[in-house]
Q: What sequence folds into this?
């Protein structure tokens, strides 16, 4: 099945830890433009739209030759902002690319889109990755995913799962969840209408709401090197990588 997807990139100016993050431009171009240029390299993405409620971001995106849509300012999260924009699109698959991931890897986006396109019985997909050397699987800031043998997500947790009790050969290894999502367009409205759930509140992980309500999430697998930028310190590290030509 040929995948046809639109990438919708939610971007807001307000941020507790890093105000104005999408427009940070110490590399010579705003961060949101880095994200758009990476998204444009995805084979499976036929359209890219920034979803923002901030006119400054909107104008910068348009000036760079990309598409931007102004959204309502009262959305509680990025998924709701994406759903508002997705309602006006024709593509059957919607990719949620975060506006603070300027080094997102296009091949991993394509892998996730193609997986969902191949499984019309599943409403959404995400990405998991092996842990990189030096990353601590026990770190609660890194979300883990446990999968079924057919690739469906069984659970997401901030705790170290699975627990390798006997250290037996062939035991399942912890997998890092990467916050890339692909939705069937019609499922987005279903998703945002779902009531919050106990496990979601406990772990503070929105994707658990989908599982608790009985919907499936497929997991593509790939070695992800990119990370989101949440703080000025992380942005400074990104700038240094760009200037040195490293990932």
A:
């Amino acid at each position: 099945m040929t995948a046809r997807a639109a990438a919708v990139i939610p971007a807001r100016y307000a941020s507790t830890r890093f105000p104005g993050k999408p427009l940070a431009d110490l590399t010579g171009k705003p961060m949101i433009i880095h994200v758009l240029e990476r998204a444009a390299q995805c084979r499976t993405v036929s359209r890219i739209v920034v979803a923002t409620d901030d006119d400054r971001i909107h104008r910068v995106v348009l000036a760079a030759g990309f598409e931007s849509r102004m959204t309502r300012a009262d959305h509680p999260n990025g998924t709701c902002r994406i759903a508002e924009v997705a309602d006006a699109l024709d593509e059957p698959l919607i990719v949620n690319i975060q506006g603070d991931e300027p080094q997102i890897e296009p091949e991993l986006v394509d892998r996730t889109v193609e997986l969902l396109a191949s499984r019309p019985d599943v409403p959404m997909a995400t990405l998991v990755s092996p842990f990189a050397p030096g990353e601590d699987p026990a770190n609660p800031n890194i979300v883990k995913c446990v999968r079924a043998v057919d690739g469906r997500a069984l659970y997401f947790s901030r705790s170290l799962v699975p627990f390798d009790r006997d250290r037996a050969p062939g035991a399942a290894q912890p997998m890092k969840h990467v916050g890339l999502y692909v939705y069937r367009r019609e499922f987005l409205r279903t998703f945002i209408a779902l009531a919050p759930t106990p496990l979601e509140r406990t772990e503070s992980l929105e994707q658990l709401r989908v599982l608790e309500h009985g919907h499936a999430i497929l997991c593509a697998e790939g070695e992800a090197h990119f990370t989101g930028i949440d703080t000025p310190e992380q942005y400074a590290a990104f700038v240094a990588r760009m200037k040195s030509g490293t990932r």
Notes: The longest helix spans residues 232-244. The radius of gyration is 18 Å.
